Structure formats: C-alpha cells, structure tokens
Amino acid sequence: MMTDRRDRARELLMLLGLQVLDSIERGEFPVLHIPDRRTSNIVYDPSRGRFVLGGSVQVRDARNTKHLRSFVQLMWAATFAKQLLESGRTSSLRDLYYSSEAFGIDFRNQAESNRIVTDLESLTGMPREEMGIFPDEHSSVYGPVTMRYTVTGYEGREVDLTVSPDGLPIGPALTTAEPVDTDAEIVLAVESGGMFSRLIETRAWEKYHAVLVHLGGQPPRSARRLMRRLHDVLGLPVFVFTDGDPWGMHIARVIVSGSANAAHIDRLTVHDAEWIGVTPADIRDYSLPTDPLTDADLKRLSDLSIDPRYSDPPWCDYIVEFRSLGRKAEQQAFSRYGIDFVVDTYLADKLGQ
Fold it and tell me: What is the pLDDT averaged over residues 345-349?
C-alpha cells in the first residue's frame, strides 16, 4: 500500500513538472494556483469530521518578480522529492533545508523551506510523508501493540512497542508500519516527556490498558498519523492529557479537528478524541498550584476566540473559563498531593476507572 502511494506521489510530481514545462514550451510564464492555508480559509467538513481548506487560492506567477524566488524554491523541492522517491530514500525536513545549499537554493531559514514543502503538498494533494519527507523526530510511543514494518529491507518484521523503557521514536518506519495486534483499550496522549516517563515507570499503561504517546508539545504529524491508525485499525479511543493552559488546550484541539497548516491533509485527525485535561475546571476542583496567565497566553486566547475551530462548545467555553480564571497549571502540578497522585487518582477519575 505504501509503495502504491509513493508511486502516485511520483506521478503527481511528474505531472507538475510537465505542467510547468508545457507553459514554457508555449512561450508562456508558468502559473501555479496553490490552496490558501490561512485560518480564514478553513471550513468544517462534517463528512470528514475535521476542518479542511476552502476554495480560496493563492497565485504564484513566474512573470511576477516577487514570486520568482518562491517559485524556484518550490520547483527545487519537487525535484528533490522526486529524487527521493526514485531512489527509495527518505529525508527529514532539516536535511532538506541543508541539502538546498548544495544546489544554490536560498532559503532564509528552515521555517521558510518547511513552508515551501507545505506549498508542494497543497499543490499536489499528497502529504510530504508519501514523498519521502518526514519531520525531525520528537515524539515517542509505548504500549502493548505489535506493529509490522513495511519499509524496504524490514518488510514483514514485527516490533512490540514495549521493547524499550524509553519508548520508541515515531519516525518514518513506525509511521508507515501496520498495527497488527494489541491488548490495549485506549490511546493516552500526553504533552510532556516527564509525564510520559512517569506513566511508563508506574506501569500506568497496564493499569489503564493504554498505548502511551508522547506528543512533545504540539504533536508532529507522524504522531497524529499513528494515533489515527491505532484508532481506525485497532478501534482504540484517544484521550489527550496536556498542561492546563491555552497552548495545551490547542494541542488537543489540533488532534481532534486538525491544524490550519495541515488542513489539506487527510488521516491526521481523530474527530472523537477527548481532551481530559488539565481543564480550567480541574485547576479549580483540584486546587492546583498555578501561575498567572501571561500576556502571550492572553493573546493566544484572543487569537483562538476568532478561530473557527473554537466557535462551538465546549471549546469556546474553555476560552471563557481560562480568561475568567486568569491562571494556568502544568501536568506536574498534581504532585502537590504525592508523586503518584496523577496516576492513581486523577487519571482514574478522568478515565472512569
């Protein structure tokens, strides 16, 4: 299946090249129409259970000198991706950025090269992973699941996700592996590495029959894709446990309904995933140690209040509650009641066990 998708990606890249070449041969400047990824152009699609891009597009016209730089960058990224597919290789986003220097392609920074790769995804309708381009790993997984690899040289090999007490990094091989079997009943996604380790050390994954996913902050697409596959293939519901602040809340919302930057990509969301906390109500009910919301936190709440993903309950209510409370708390705040309180009591309350 993965081979078929990569063949399709290669075909789409070739069609993009032929489109540009055809314009040049006709004596015309190539023009590309790229879907607009601004938040104002995302709309909710109930059939998919997530937010998708609307009909607005951005034009990249080679006759416009202001567009030439990004046009060339985009064509190089497409060429680089095609070479990866033809050679059966992969690259991280960071490697792509540094590889551009060898070809004289001028990116101001990696953020700019990342945006160009996202432009390429939007233009072709194919996620970068299917073009052999992956994020740098900073998320992990641990739990009673058997995965079967599909990458070249490892086809058919199986791995138990409890093989390492540190968890396994969610890299390209694991992202594309097939879930085979599990004794788990849920996926529990946690924001911080410290909490991820705590849940392994205390064997909370056994107590709650859980696959643990370390999100590492805003989760990379590899982690979101893996959670979606565990949900779809193995039927595991997903619960999200983050810090009690606007940023943690948004991590959960992205898992549920998608990010604006990836609204053009399917199979990244779990529309019935639940944010179990730390909610504003938890901060009050558990009398947690808190810090005041900073100016950056308050600005984030203001930004989210006009985000279409926060237009309905309970998400719009969370914004009001955070503003009213004026405080925030981290996952580790439960330690005031004992080092294992979060495992023995809080999660038991939240997961109904």
Answer: 94
Residues labelled catalytic: 98
Secondary structure (DSSP) of 213-235: EE--SSPPHHHHHHHHHHHHHH-
Q: Say if residue 214 is in the same domain as residue 340.
A: yes
Count how many residues are written for the chain: 353
C-alpha separations of 18 from 24, 70, 78 in Å: 10, 19, 12
Q: What Cα–Cα distance (Å) separates residue 348 from each residue in 204, 209, 339, 343?
A: 10, 12, 15, 7
pLDDT confidence of residue 247: 96
Does residue 23 share a domain with residue 69? Answer: yes
Please tell me whether residues 190 and 61 are part of one structural domain: no
CA distance 149 to 331: 34
Residue 184 carries which DSSP code? Answer: -
pTM score above 0.85:
no
Take residue 5 and report the two structure tokens written for it: 């998708």
> 47 forms bridges with which residues in the sheet?
none
Q: What is the DSSP letter of 156?
A: T
**Which range of residues forms the domain containing residue 60?**
2-134
Task: Give 246-259 pLDDT, tens digit per residue.
Answer: 999 999 999 999 88
